[in-house]
Protein 1
Amino acid sequence: MIALDADDTTAGQAGGLPEIVDRAIARDVDAVLHTGNLFRRPTPTDADVSFAIDTLERLVEHSIDCYAISGRREVRSDQSPITSLNDAGVIDHLGSKPVILDGTVALYGIDYTEEPDVFAEQLENLTEERGMTYTIVAAHQHIWPPAKKDESVIGALEAADTAAPFISEIAAGGRTSPATWEADRYSYRVTYTGSSNPAAIDDDPVASLVTVDDHETATRTPVPIFTTEPDSELELLKSVCKQEPVEYDDLDTETLVDLYGLSSKAKSSIESRRRELRDELTDRLADGEQKQGQYATVRNVVQTRRNLRDEDEVVRALEDAGIDPNEVVEISSKAVRKLADNGDVAGDRVFDEQERVVIQRSDLSL
């Protein structure tokens, strides 16, 4: 079992590293793999490095190995901070020779490079390991798919063909959002866990818990990095529900921007949490069962959503029932919009257009 965390973890600032360590210890994993950009700056401060060492020493105390590679930021430093952590004995800097875990997993690592030819050469230089293992190559690179082709240094299939050993998975870093691509004909995939830095993404950051079944298969399970105590969350939600009106005329624009941005983020976070709670309650409550808490009452209700079947099938059913299908035909707004966009019909002849001003949140840093 391996816990793979994401790139863009921040050590010296609250960005996810302590929480990742907590999750790894709680699940008693065999190892933690970090795919680059452990720090926010190419040359972190001594305090940042000391913070990372102190945090990662907790893994050492629990006999959990931590493996890492240098990301885009680390390679820009005169001496990669990953080397400093390696010298301190809190991580192992992966390279061309495999680290074998429990006789079933082989771990390789390739530091970030801007040169596609250099990356291909490093794949060729990986030392082939004899025996049947699930082989993971950690690489802080854009690989297509799932990354965009014009931003990638190599294709996924080309990477597999180039590498000396047979690769089961490329654990890639360098993307803020999670993504996975799997080959059709054999067991091989490229995975991005995504950023563990909450300031870099809209969704809640996660790590990936990887359970290796055998030399061919492994399963990935998302693991939330940040969790909240239920009592604290109840108080927070109660305070949100009890909000009083605000006199906005007296507020400066910067405060309005912050309030709007945080409200936007809170909306998506609360909706995500509501779905989690709904799924948990669905498992616990029987059909029609009602349950009352201290503040709320809920009931498990079965709702039926009807979607039309294939158009030909519906037409035949109507005709069999003696109903003229033309009586129930409606004009499709989507189809008319497409015609207007193509210039086949004048837009002002078929649409009443109304403009509205929308404020969009483009960035948020907590």
Protein 2
Amino acid sequence: MESETMSLNEVAALLRLHPRSFSNLMAKGGRCPPFIRLSLRKKIWLRRSVMAWLAEQQQFTSQPARRG
């Protein structure tokens, strides 16, 4: 049974990013799944939130661009 929570390394692996690249993306305010801050340094992600975020991103990128 999979854990309900994910670490930074697990989320980065799911996104096919190096953990440092994922950390840098978050630090720069890039789009990333919502997380829970446990302390100044420690963050966790709820697996269901990460999967919902991924589905949302897939919908966003699969929509054709509107031309005005």
